[in-house]
Amino acid sequence: MNKHTYTQFDNELEAIRKRLLEMGGLVAQQLTRAIEGLGTGNQELLEQVIADDRKVNEEEVALDDACIHVIARHAPTAGDLRMVMTMIQMITDLERIGDEAKKIAKAGRQIIDSDAAFVPKVELRHVSTMVVEMLQGALDAFARMDPTASPDIVRRDKEVDAIFKGIMRQLITYMMEDPRVITRSLDVLFIAKSIERIGDHAKNLSEYVVYMVKGRDVRHEGVEALERASGAE
């Protein structure tokens, strides 16, 4: 490629990267609004989360198309191709985070509309804050092209998994003690599961950054190997 073509390619790549980060900001906002709406009983916030899912889906389609066109026009190789392929993977995970935020909002809407006496008291705000921070950390790592945060995000994902299991046990106990709370307990369980899945997606995003920067696929390796690969030791 000549100099003009390289400049055009860099500009297109940067435009996609910027839009991906904007998409990440939107899904982080969706998640924050879903948890806030659930915690405060604010139906308007929940409805906004559900409405914004369409924007996320539209961005996924547009960004996937932009990535495909970049590959077709410029035939990138080595690190450039790795970046484009990484962004395609990240776009998919971000869209799925948006889907989970919408699920939280829909379940939250049912809880708010129900009799509060039959809604189990389960603490979700702490684990929700954790996954929001994981998502923001992964997006920041991508923005700075710095994979060193990945091991910490993976460790936090293990904490989120453990918290989810604790919530599940707590809800089972509530349902056994009082069958009247079963319906709402299942709603809370679905919300907790969505939060846990968002943690998984945030972990995926952080691992993609390691692959993009270091050229090593670390998705199925332990934390110690991830630390070595990311340079976080």
Automatic annotation (TrEMBL):
The keyword Lipid metabolism does not apply. Residues 20-106, 124-209 form the PhoU domain. InterPro entries: PhoU, PhoU-like_sf, PhoU_dom. Signal peptide: none annotated. Pfam families: PhoU (PF01895). Keywords: Cytoplasm, Phosphate transport, Transport. It is found in: Cytoplasm. Its main location: cytoplasm. It comes from the Bacteria. Belongs to the PhoU family. Homodimer. Plays a role in the regulation of phosphate uptake. This is Phosphate-specific transport system accessory protein PhoU. It comes from Aromatoleum evansii. The gene is phoU.
